[in-house]
TrEMBL record, chains A, B, C, D, E, F, G:
InterPro entries: Ntn_hydrolases_N, Proteasome_alpha, Proteasome_alpha-type, Proteasome_asu_arc, Proteasome_asu_N, Proteasome_sua/b. GO terms for cellular component: cytoplasm; proteasome core complex, alpha-subunit complex. It comes from Natrinema salifodinae. The formation of the proteasomal ATPase PAN-20S proteasome complex, via the docking of the C-termini of PAN into the intersubunit pockets in the alpha-rings, triggers opening of the gate for substrate entry. Interconversion between the open-gate and close-gate conformations leads to a dynamic regulation of the 20S proteasome proteolysis activity. The gene is psmA. Its main location: cytoplasm. This is Proteasome subunit alpha.
Amino acid sequence: MQGQSQQQAYDRGITIFSPDGRLYQVEYAREAVKRGTASVGVRTPDGVVLAANRQVSSPLMERSSVEKLHKADDHVGVASAGHVADARQLVDLARRRAQGEQLRYGQQIDVETLTRSITDHIQEYTQTGGARPFGVALLVGGVDDGEPRLFETDPSGTDYEWQAAAIGSNRDAIQGYLEAEYRADLDVDAGIELALRALSEPEDETVEAESVDVATITNDDQGYRSVPAEDLESIVAEIDAGGDDD
Amino acid sequence: MQGQSQQQAYDRGITIFSPDGRLYQVEYAREAVKRGTASVGVRTPDGVVLAANRQVSSPLMERSSVEKLHKADDHVGVASAGHVADARQLVDLARRRAQGEQLRYGQQIDVETLTRSITDHIQEYTQTGGARPFGVALLVGGVDDGEPRLFETDPSGTDYEWQAAAIGSNRDAIQGYLEAEYRADLDVDAGIELALRALSEPEDETVEAESVDVATITNDDQGYRSVPAEDLESIVAEIDAGGDDD
Amino acid sequence: MQGQSQQQAYDRGITIFSPDGRLYQVEYAREAVKRGTASVGVRTPDGVVLAANRQVSSPLMERSSVEKLHKADDHVGVASAGHVADARQLVDLARRRAQGEQLRYGQQIDVETLTRSITDHIQEYTQTGGARPFGVALLVGGVDDGEPRLFETDPSGTDYEWQAAAIGSNRDAIQGYLEAEYRADLDVDAGIELALRALSEPEDETVEAESVDVATITNDDQGYRSVPAEDLESIVAEIDAGGDDD
Amino acid sequence: MQGQSQQQAYDRGITIFSPDGRLYQVEYAREAVKRGTASVGVRTPDGVVLAANRQVSSPLMERSSVEKLHKADDHVGVASAGHVADARQLVDLARRRAQGEQLRYGQQIDVETLTRSITDHIQEYTQTGGARPFGVALLVGGVDDGEPRLFETDPSGTDYEWQAAAIGSNRDAIQGYLEAEYRADLDVDAGIELALRALSEPEDETVEAESVDVATITNDDQGYRSVPAEDLESIVAEIDAGGDDD
Amino acid sequence: MQGQSQQQAYDRGITIFSPDGRLYQVEYAREAVKRGTASVGVRTPDGVVLAANRQVSSPLMERSSVEKLHKADDHVGVASAGHVADARQLVDLARRRAQGEQLRYGQQIDVETLTRSITDHIQEYTQTGGARPFGVALLVGGVDDGEPRLFETDPSGTDYEWQAAAIGSNRDAIQGYLEAEYRADLDVDAGIELALRALSEPEDETVEAESVDVATITNDDQGYRSVPAEDLESIVAEIDAGGDDD
Amino acid sequence: MQGQSQQQAYDRGITIFSPDGRLYQVEYAREAVKRGTASVGVRTPDGVVLAANRQVSSPLMERSSVEKLHKADDHVGVASAGHVADARQLVDLARRRAQGEQLRYGQQIDVETLTRSITDHIQEYTQTGGARPFGVALLVGGVDDGEPRLFETDPSGTDYEWQAAAIGSNRDAIQGYLEAEYRADLDVDAGIELALRALSEPEDETVEAESVDVATITNDDQGYRSVPAEDLESIVAEIDAGGDDD
Amino acid sequence: MQGQSQQQAYDRGITIFSPDGRLYQVEYAREAVKRGTASVGVRTPDGVVLAANRQVSSPLMERSSVEKLHKADDHVGVASAGHVADARQLVDLARRRAQGEQLRYGQQIDVETLTRSITDHIQEYTQTGGARPFGVALLVGGVDDGEPRLFETDPSGTDYEWQAAAIGSNRDAIQGYLEAEYRADLDVDAGIELALRALSEPEDETVEAESVDVATITNDDQGYRSVPAEDLESIVAEIDAGGDDD
């Protein structure tokens, strides 16, 4: 109970340090991330795969409006987990930043630079008063001069680069699956398959094409491409045929 | 009781995260939505139907002043549920935004773009201090180049696209009715009928023309059109004649 | 007692939502309205009648200084109930707004538009921090191109249009009387009589000309007109002669 | 005791409504007025009399420095009760406002207009945060085109017009005396006598010329005039000679 | 104990009214004045005498640096009691104000006007939030066109004019001595003697020249003059020779 | 328990002093530093060595993204321990500051000057309200005109110059090892070896090349140089061959 | 315990008065000064000596970086005790202020004027909200036109002038030693000796040259001069030879 009342002392007003050097508001924002449905990113030599579970609360809801994957620029995609409205703010920031680079310098923004401008923005909300942290984690995938990159941003404003990463609910189980199954030489289709299997891992269910959203950012001319539902279905069919041990 | 006092800790001052990653002020604002009378939106191939219950507290009150449906632009209508004065602020924002688009670019604003500018505004009030969230949900219905669209905004600043949706009191029961009865190929008149039946669902009462307000936004020249009382009455008469199983 | 301490949690600092979606500061401001002496508005085909009880705490106080009725423009009057100094701020706002319209566009402001500019101002004080809501309700009566209009504003920033309405102490009893006795085809004099009877209703006392203030806003050339004491006295005499059943 | 703790909840930070619709900080400011020595205003057909008790805490203090009566303009005087430094701010505001009118329009400011500019300023301090209300009441007496006017301002920012009024400690007893003894046709000298008797009422003591301060604002050329000590003494002598029943 | 906790409720954040109409932060600032060593002012027909006890905490401290008397202008001096750093701010304000008058109008500022500009500044710190009151009282002594004036400022922002006044620790005893011994026709030297006796009163000790600081502001050409240590010693010698009854 | 509740009193809102003159928020920020993995700096006559442990939480995480060593300018490197996102803000500040110097004056910024601009920024966040301190310590190593310098910054905004220093978890043990083994005449390679041994000290494990990051800032043309993984491996191999007593 | 909880009430948010007229945050800042190692200033006819103990927490720390003595201008030095980062802010302020005087008027700033600009800055942080006081005391020593001056600043913003003064830990014992041993006719070397003896007083240890830092500001051409380590050693040798009674 003391732990309870001690925590309460640190979450009011602004984001401040607890006696053991933690920022509770940031940690609570991480809980908001865990409450969101999972997203997965997989980096392959030919591009980055982003995939996300979509929870559609009613058959009358348009699936496309439960947006978990976002095109930030021709060569960059973003997956999110956590507070949806917060995610949209950060995605909009990324888009404006990418457009600004295009306008000012006539070139595509570097994926790492773009990620940093997002995490700088996130960090600011953890230090200066009068605002709460962003309750969202992002996976930022893109291609720089033919080289695929995959970054994660967390609510503290830290970024990490990954070969394959998961964010959101059941993150640990999904990440464990990725660690067991990821191979650096996957082609993009295999990356999609890995991502879909990983997302279905927690429940060990068969993958259902309609409850996932997949995009690829490849180092050919296509750049960001949302994988169409029909393609997804044939991929899923193959997966389900091949079974878990494929 | 502990739950009680814990909640109190998170709803003061600004909107901050609780230890389990929730934003209580936003959740309380959702309660304000539930306290409002219900509104319904139905998308048909020819346009969007918006309908709302109106609670008139005295026979001397002008029914028109209990405004639940609003014309935001020639091609966009908004229904609301929750805190009435908050709703008016968002409707005014939508109108200014639509007019601005008209003035700057000489064209009608995209329904999705308009919805986003509303939810961006809502989200801002959930993150920066010194203000409470908006205690209102909206249904934004409109037509883009002949294509009907129907969006919902919630107090967190999230938007969803729907085929048919309900907001406000008894939302779950009404949404359940919509899910059971909605067909994608309804014509506008059938959409009106569905909306009226849905609104009367919770009490299973016969629909009364005078306690509802209906508007349609169609992909013909009419655009936003408030359905006149006399039309409503004949529709209602038909419904009541046809019974529940029609 | 828990209800007590729970309420206290929601009324400090800024206006925020309670767990059940209510804004306590706004509800407390409504209590401030109930503490004020009553005002009544009656709409007739020829104009609007505003009437108010005046509590003069000493025979040495000038009755005219207990202002409950205010001329906002040639064609608009305002009655108030609640915190007197707050009412004056809103009346001044209404006057500036009406004058601005006159200066900018050379025309009288629409009564509904004027009311909205007041309720927008009121709503702002319920959402952004650092200020309390306005503790006052207004009746805004006026004539637009020959058409009488009567609006009410409440502390949440909502407005309603009425045929006849009461605000302030004993509001429910007075409104009940209006609902029972109002007829849409009253002439202005009958409207005055109805208003005076309604104001005397709670105590079922005879009306006293000196404790009421009456103004009319008519669709002839007169516009806003404060009814002189001598006229009031003869009207009251008639009422008292006619008895309650007239 | 609960009443105690409940009150404490409403007087911190900013001025907010209590559950029963009261503004405690404003009510506490009224207590500050009651803690001040009394002032009295009497309106006569020929001008306004202002009179005030002066508490001089030491024989070495200059009586003139315990200022309770202030000349705001040639034709306006102000008496105060309550927090002395607050009163000076409002008197300075009145002077600047009167000078501004003189400079801009070349004419004396209307007494009612001047009073309103003071009460508007007071009201602002009761609604917007970060400041306490003014702990002072004023009597504003003056002459407009030959017509004497007497207004009171209170800490809520309300103004009242009076024939004769008292503010400050023992206000109720003094006001009662004024109500019993005031006649509308008093000449200025009789007004002074009434004011002095009223001030001495609570203790039923004989009036002492040295413990009161008197000013008149008359509709002749004199305007604001501080009544000299020697005049006061002869008036007081007359009063004391005539006894209480004069 | 309740009194204790009630007081605590009113001294946080900003200066607000207690239920009985008091401003605790201002009253606590008065306690800060009482914690300071005493200062005395004596007005004579030929000028004003300011005198102050100086507590030098170490023989190595320069006596001149324990500044209790300050020259504000050629014709104005200031003595202080209370929070030393606060006093310096107000003295600096007085100097800037006096210089400004000299620069703008080419004349010496009126002593009363100067005092008012100080008390206006002090009052502001008692009403608007985000700052504490000034914990200091001042004696402002000066000469206007040959007329000596002596004012006191207190932490509420009130000013009083005195013939002779004391501020700081043991104020009541010193003021009592002044009331008993002051005569309006004292010459300046007798005024110095009176001031020194008064300062030594509380302990009934003999006056020690080295523990006091004396300045005179006279209506001859000298204006503000700090009385040199040697002069003080001979005066003190005379006093001590003459005994208490001189 | 009292100590507990006393501490809670000092860590809310802004950084304020405790009764014993401590700034708890700063001390808690020091705890955040201790939660970070360790970094070490070693100054040699030929340059500065920076080394850091890297905790990579998953084999799929890119080691390079767990950035603990940063190039601030050609001649300056920064190692960090503590809150990662805070560190990035300070490193960015350092970079901007170094570039500004280059742009304005065409020369490399002095290492001490650069450090001071960082600690000034840190100090500001410990004194003015509305923000928390930075939860990070830095080692700033560089070369000024051929002279190697090594500074530490702490969360209070203090800087220290070192021959060899450790920050982060197990700081005391690592610093003890450095104190025992440091010699001022080490060459850079020996400095690297010392740094690696020190980092492995707490657990007394053999050094693993893949869990450390090393950079050198030397007074030859190379300036800042990140030591490549292959070089690190051969160095580590030598260390492990030579044993602890080498 | 009550004293405990009472104190807590006054140290939050901003610096406000306690019921007994004290500013706890300022008093706590004085505790921060006492936590700092001691500094001593000695004024001699030929100049001022500043000396400070230096606590170097590790043999690897550069002694020069534990800066306790600072050159503010060619003719002014500053010693500090307390919060190190706060001291640096004030020293920087002093330097900017001295440079400004040089730039604007082409002359050296007066030592007293410089001290005042520091204490004005300190005072401001004790009165206006949103910031804590400075947790540092300074000794400001310098020479004005050949005249040595020595000032102390404290956390309240008060300054004192001294012949010889100590600040920081064990201040009372050191000051006692200075009071016993100081003579006004010391030459600078004797002043250094006195300062060193005083600093070693608390522990009655022999002085160690390496744990002290000494600077002189003399009225010859040298101005501010940091006494070199070798000079210090020979002085200390002499002291230790001469014993305590020299």
